[in-house]
Design goal:
two-stranded antiparallel ribbon, NUDIX_hydrolase_CS, 171 residues, Nucleoside Triphosphate Pyrophosphohydrolase, NUDIX_hydrolase_dom, NUDIX domain-containing protein, NUDIX_hydrolase-like_dom_sf, hydrolase
Length: 171
C-alpha cells in the first residue's frame, strides 16, 4: 500500500514543523437537529467530524468527499464552505510539530444515496452516527469543540463562512 502524503513528507523532514491542510464535512439529518459524527480510532473520548488531510493535488472539496466515503461509506457532495481555522501544535501525538489549516464544508447526500449505507471503516472511524446538537456533543479535542460551536451559532445564523485562528496551546 502506498504511503499517504504526510507519511512521505515526514520521512523527508522528520519532526520539523510542517503545515498541512485538512477538510471535514458536516452532514445534517433530515430534521436538522443532529450532525453525523464519528468515534475516532485515535481518541478515547468525544466525537470528530468525518474528514482528514488533503493528498497532494487534491482540492479541499475532493478531500472531504473522499474522506466521507472512506470513513462513513456515504457518497456526499459539497454544499458550501462553513469556515476555516488554523491550529498550531508544537508536538502532536506522534511527536511532530505541525500547523493544520482546516476547512469545513456543509455536505449533503448525493442524489439517490441513502443514509442506511452508513458504515464506519473500523480503523480511523470506530463508529459513526447522527448525534443530537442539543445538548452539545463532546468533541475529541477543544479545537473541534470550538469549531462545532461556530457551526451551530455562526453558520446557522448567516451564510457567510467564518475564520478562526486557534490558540497555540489548544489541542
Amino acid at each position: 500500500m502506498e504511503q499517504n502524503y504526510i507519511a512521505r513528507m515526514r520521512q523527508k523532514v522528520g519532526h520539523e514543523g510542517m503545515i498541512f491542510n485538512s477538510a471535514f464535512g458536516v452532514l445534517w439529518n433530515k430534521e436538522h437537529d443532529a450532525i453525523l459524527l464519528e468515534k475516532r480510532g485515535d481518541s478515547k473520548v468525544g466525537y470528530g467530524f468525518p474528514g482528514g488531510f488533503l493528498e497532494y493535488g487534491e482540492s479541499p472539496m475532493q478531500a472531504v468527499v473522499r474522506e466521507f466515503k472512506e470513513e462513513t461509506n456515504l457518497n456526499v457532495e459539497v454544499v458550501r464552505l462553513l469556515g476555516m481555522a488554523t491550529h498550531v501544535n508544537p508536538k502532536n501525538s506522534w511527536g511532530d510539530a505541525q500547523e493544520t489549516i482546516s476547512m469545513g464544508f456543509e455536505v449533503r447526500l448525493v442524489e439517490g444515496e441513502d443514509a442506511s449505507a452508513l458504515k464506519a471503516d473500523g480503523d480511523e472511524t470506530l463508529a459513526v452516527q447522527f448525534v443530537a446538537v442539543n445538548p452539545r456533543p463532546q468533541m475529541f479535542v477543544p479545537a473541534a469543540q470550538n469549531t462545532l460551536e461556530r457551526i451551530l451559532t455562526w453558520n446557522e445564523e448567516n451564510d457567510q463562512p467564518w475564520l478562526r485562528e486557534a490558540a497555540k496551546n489548544e489541542d
